[in-house]
Amino acid sequence: MRITLRLVSVSLLAGWLAACSEPPKDPEVVVYTSRKDHLIRPVFDLYTQETGVKVRYTTDDDGALITRLAAEGNNSPADLLITVDAGNLWQATEQGLFQPVDSEVLTTNVPANLRDVDNRWFGQTVRARTLVYSPDRVQPEELSSYEALAEPAWKGRLCLRTSKKVYNQSLVATMIERHGEEKAEAIVRGWVDNLATDVFSNDTALIEAIAAGQCDVGIVNTYYFGRLIAEKPDLPVALFWANQDSSGVHINISGVGLTAHAPNRDQAIKLMEWMSTAAPQQLLAEQNMEYPVNPAVQPTGVVTAWGEFRGDDLNVAVAGKRQVEAVKLMDRAGYR
Ligand code: FE
């Protein structure tokens, strides 16, 4: 009996000693991200260099990551979800996948229209969707707004990407918010009437169609323009900042939310905060020819050559809220 007790107490003591001497777990943050590896890796590497905190991340499509996070529930290892397009952040929020973050750093660095009203997600970079045109066939004075592309002057001269892409759904969603459904539908019908050719499956093909003389004007995200111009500097296509006398250029974001069950909550918030500061903002934006979300941080790289623009100040959440209406409207208007 005595021997057994002694054995038990010896093993208890050994266990206690082991627990005490076990090194503390290295701090880390786990991220699910739809940003491509080459865009996000330099940013996380810099963070680890500066803080010693490891960032483990998984990249996949927005939809796949949201589905995975929902399926994993409170067993998910993920602390943060980084996606492109406010529509996706809105979807994740609707599914209860995020928790609010009360951070003065984030509310200072991220403008109110580029984050959730309840602080469940925050923009990280801004992407601009604006007009591209043929400088050979169009004078910039002839251009003004997305809405004006519905006018008869553009009959047979407009190129559009498919309405199936969330980018155009978001643009139409903001037009519904601003003009009401009836007027927005009339504008979209005008676009469809003015199409020079079938809709395109991507922005790059659209820009090339303008260069090839298939149409004179279109609507694209500026980073596609930037990538193509980097390859073909003499491409006869130019950018025009839309709606500078009205609502401003249509913008969207890439952004981040803290997951509802984040195992490394405090470390994750520190990473979110850090990503809203100057060096990572510039790194993130420049890699994909986007713009820093933090207005105190200057854009860098090729985008500076395109000049400054005023962006739409509607909350980007509208893209999510009105997405279903936008899809239905485009369908009614015959926009495929
Ligand atoms: Fe894109």
Structural write-up:
By secondary structure, this protein is α/β, with parallel strands linked by helices. The protein folds into two domains: 151 residues, 3-Layer(aba) Sandwich (D-Maltodextrin-Binding Protein, domain 2); 135 residues, D-Maltodextrin-Binding Protein, domain 2. The chain is 43% helix and 16% strand. Strands 1, 2, 3, 4, 5, 6, 7, 8, 9 and 10 form a ten-stranded mixed β-sheet that branches. Helix 2 packs antiparallel against helix 11, helix 6 crosses helix 7 and helix 6 packs across helix 13. The chain is globular, with a radius of gyration of 24 Å. The mean pLDDT is 94. Bound molecules: fe (iii) ion (FE).
Give a concise summary.
The chain is α/β, with parallel strands linked by helices.
- Uncertain runs are none
Instruction: Kindly provide the radius of gyration, computed on alpha-carbon positions and rounded to a whole number of angstroms.
Output: 24 Å
Distance between the termini: 83 Å
Judging from the principal axes of the Cα atoms, what is the shape? globular
CATH class of the largest domain: Alpha Beta
Bound ligands, each once: fe (iii) ion
Largest sheet: 10 strands, mixed
SSE order in H/E notation? HEHEHEHEHEEHHHEHEEHHEHH
Mean pLDDT: 94
Estimate the helix proportion, in percent. Answer: 40-55%
> How many structurally independent domains?
2
Question: Could you say what the CATH architecture of the largest domain is?
Answer: 3-Layer(aba) Sandwich
Question: Would you tell me which CATH topology of the largest domain applies?
Answer: D-Maltodextrin-Binding Protein, domain 2
Structural class determined from secondary elements: alpha/beta
Into which percentage range does the β-strand content fall?
A: 15-25%
CATH homologous superfamily identity of the largest domain: Periplasmic binding protein-like II
Q: How many helices does DSSP assign?
A: 13
